[in-house]
Amino acid sequence: MKFSIWRQAAAMIPGAAAASFLVQAGCGLRLTLSLARFKSLTVTVQPGKNGGTGPNPRARQQASKKSRIRQNPQKQICNAVLEYFDERYGQELGELWDKVREVLLLPSSQQYAVLVNKFSQCVTFEQYLQSQGYSNFLPDVLPFSQYSLRCYISNIQCQLPRLQHHTERLKEYYLLNAASLFPILALDVQDGECVLDMCAAPGGKSVAILQYATPGHLHSNEYDSLRHRRLKQALESFVPKDLRSIISVTNLDGRHIGPQRLQVYDKVLVDTPCSNDRSWLFSPDVLQASMRITQRPNLPVLQRQLLRSAFEALRPGGTMVYSTCTLSQGENDDVVASVLNSYDNIQAVDLTGLAHSLANNFTFAEGVQHGKLIVPERGKLWGPMYVSKLWKLH
Fold first, then answer.
1. Can you tell me the distance from the alpha carbon of 394 to that of 345, in angstroms, rounded to the nearest whole number?
2. Distance from first CA to last CA of the chain, Å, rounded?
3. What is the 3-state secondary structure (H, E, C) of 93-115?
4. Cis link prior to 139 (omega < 30° from 0)?
5. 84 has which bridge partners?
6. If 0-12 CB within 10 Å is exposed, 13-18 middle and 19+ buried, where does residue 205 land?
7. Is 118 exposed, middle or buried (0-12, 13-18, 19+ CB in 10 A)?
């Protein structure tokens, strides 16, 4: 059965944000930002006060005025999905669901963290982020701060524009939900290791792996053809040419990788297709949303198959991380429990220490048995993100 997966909620960029956050402001360049459903904005950057950098005020005002006219209408909640979630998550999460529900129902709660591309070498961009109230939350995550992964978050409701792909220029940053870095921190790739990202599109986690460490080989795979092209483009946009030799990008059915490549990889990430709760709530097509709800019980079948394939591809002594962006127990703990019960040489790794180091920015649900579940709530809007780490004993 073919499964249609929606991994990214549609969100437009407020005009003021589009004008105020420019990717190469610190590099002194003149650049054009082509934003989805916006006309291209040509913005000249020039030194700001005290030697700082920032966009031209006049250009910012003009861009803001144009953007406000062309903003997307407010996204509408799909009542069929909301009723389904109320019934299901009300049972699974209890009172916690009320807090999560409050956040998920606000489109403005969909914030993005800024993962800085260490290969772009634009230091002044980070200085500009800091001047706008962004902070890198990863130095608090010990011992992981020894690595070069840098991700900035802000408490301000704002968003940088998404960058266009250019074949000859690396992008300065990748926008993502900050909780998406939890699987990367849990995977803990070491330099020289052979790594598989089994369901890699749209590419954010493969990009993050390469920011975190330099594997001996990174195999980024995506089964869906359209998403596979997006994955290739993402890696081309963030990775310099001299490093691409360590990366292979394939278009394989992840369920077949394990049997075909037995015990090849030191680390495997299975960021599996799932029922993305944030995007489901704002499904514009009621019929399509109803189909998703009907198909939802089939997802754990696929997820178990992918996880078992990953286990076969993993070498003895290696570790794999299973992750989703859903609150569903049936797609999270239950899938992991099924695989744990199927093998006698696999063991769940305790992520309590890592979760504790992230507690200032993430809220973790209680009662999760085989991993950790980040849930959004007021003041900590990131998630949902479920992560389980498994160790292959022999």
1. 6
2. 33
3. HCCHHHHHHHHHCCHHHCCCEEE
4. no
5. none
6. buried
7. middle
The token duo for 40 is: 């291209």
The residues annotated with a catalytic role in the active site are 325
Of how many residues is the chain composed? 394
Q: Among 156, 113, 118, 142, which Cα is nearest to 17's?
A: 156
- Residue type for position 27: C
Instruction: For residue 166, give the DSSP letter.
Output: B
CA distance 386 to 206: 18
Tokens 């085989």: give the residue: 370
Helix intervals (H) in 239-273: 254-260
Q: How far apart are CA 221 and CA 249, in angstroms?
A: 6
Name the burial class of residue 127, with classes exposed (0-12), middle (13-18) and buried (19+) by CB atoms within 10 angstroms of its CB: middle
**Cβ–Cβ under 8 Å, residues 30 and 59:** no
Q: What are phi and psi of 58, to 5 degrees?
A: -65, -45
In angstroms, rounded to a whole number, what is the distance separating the alpha carbons of residues 239 and 163? 15
Q: How far apart are CA 121 and CA 144, in angstroms?
A: 21
| Contact present, 20 and 158 (Cβ < 8 Å) | yes
* CA distance linking residue 335 with residue 331, whole number of Å: 6
How far apart are the C-alpha atoms of 366 and 386, rounded to whole Å?
12
pLDDT averaged per 10 residues, the chain (length 394): 35 34 35 34 34 41 41 70 95 96 87 93 87 88 68 82 87 96 96 98 97 96 96 96 96 98 98 92 84 92 98 98 98 98 96 94 96 96 97 97
Do the bridges between strand 265-271 and strand 151-153 make them parallel or antiparallel, or are there none, so unpaired? unpaired
pTM to 2 decimal places: 0.81
Instruction: Answer whether the bond into residue 376 is a cis peptide, omega within 30°.
Output: no
Q: d(Cα 178, Cα 248) in Å, to the nearest integer?
A: 26
